[in-house]
Amino acid sequence: MSKLGTLGARLHRGEIGYDFIKNRKIWYGLSILITITAIVGLAVRGLNMGIEFQGGAVFNTPKNTAVSVSQAEEYAETASGHDAIVQKLGDGSMRIQVAGIDTDAANKIKNTLADDLKIDSEQINAELVGPSWGDQIADKAWQGLGIFLFLVVIYLAIAFEWRMALAAFVALIHDITITVGIYALVGFEVTPGTVIGLLTILGYSLYDTVVVFDSLKEQTKDLTKQTRWTYSDVANRSINSTLVRSINTTVVALLPVAGLLFIGGGVLGAGMLNDISLSLFVGLAAGAYSSIFIATPLVADLKEREPQMKALKKRVLAKRAKGETEVRDDDEVYTDEPEDAAPAVVGPRHQPASRSRGRGRPSGKRR
């Protein structure tokens, strides 16, 4: 842990760093490849929509039903002629979901299940779910997503600038597309919990991006007044200075979500936990990735297109080629550092007063 803290401090001071901006084409290509894979998976396999969106019936058996999950699933599919989803609950009861059936079919399936499970039909609780409820949830989710994205773009455009708002918007769409594509490839059931998870990851995805943007805005206030660093240099410094914090917050957030997904859903068999935990797990990981490898490099690309930034880049490159030194207003001289060194913070540096200042001078006091 001490080594990690030392690494974070050195990254923040610019003593070491990785050139994320220089390799941005690699990150763009990787993101495009992942996004295309997600879209293809979504188009080919589609989403496994839950009963709340398709409509159907849910049958709840009594406690301590003496039948295995696989056997109950076989009984339900034989009785209904449709695919069935069976979940074993903590008290020994079972939740059997069958999509795409009406009231008459539900009553017949209930009686057949009672005979197969060797229990009284009155002990099975049957609930019909209409697809209109799921449609309402989907409509509300799309409305919430649209309002959220609109407010985010407006806020970032006012607090920072429109280029950062555009980059954050692209990163959010990137995260949502990957998360939905993973759902299609894995085949997990899409339920209202999934929708809640997708809306939740938007805030997490935006958090790291705003942290980097805030650092970038602070360090580029008087960027055009110097000839030492380009906009891409300072953007790279902003990523490195917040890198360890982004990794720490992401790992801390992923640990409990991973517990829900792998232990709760996988080991304990609580399938309903998969609905929200998978979207949170994939979304958090994708959000951390996009804030570092997509959003900030995209801002640097957009800013470098500005005429003043193009002129600054020419001056900086010309000065580096000549190997000149830069004299600042405080009469301090800075020599050019190696190309692989991480860029320093733009702006004058204020050195602490020397402790030896005033030594050997008469104090002015008379004895």
Please give a structural write-up.
The protein is α+β, with helices and mostly antiparallel strands and about 375 residues long. The chain has two domains: about 1-50 and about 135-310, Multidrug efflux transporter AcrB transmembrane domain (Multidrug efflux transporter AcrB transmembrane fold), CATH 1.20.1640; about 55-130, Alpha-Beta Plaits, CATH 3.30.70. The protein has eleven helices and eight strands. It has helices spanning about 1-15, 25-45, 50-55, 70-80, 105-115, 130-160, 160-185, 190-220, 230-265, 270-305, 305-320, and strands at about 50, 55-60, 85-90, 95-100, 125-130, 190, 325, 335. Strands 3-4-2-5 form a four-stranded antiparallel beta sheet. A hairpin with a 5-residue loop joins strand 3 and strand 4. Helix 4 (about 70-80) packs across helix 5. The longest helix is centred in the last third of the chain and has 37 residues, at about 230-265. The chain is elongated, with a radius of gyration of 29 Å. The two termini are about 60 Å apart. Mean pLDDT is about 80; it is low at about 325-365.
What would you say about this model in short?
Forms a complex with SecD. Part of the essential Sec protein translocation apparatus which comprises SecA, SecYEG and auxiliary proteins SecDF. Other proteins may also be involved. With 367 residues, this protein is an alpha+beta fold. It has two domains: 2-49 and 133-309, Multidrug efflux transporter AcrB transmembrane fold (Up-down Bundle); 56-129, Alpha-Beta Plaits, CATH 3.30.70.
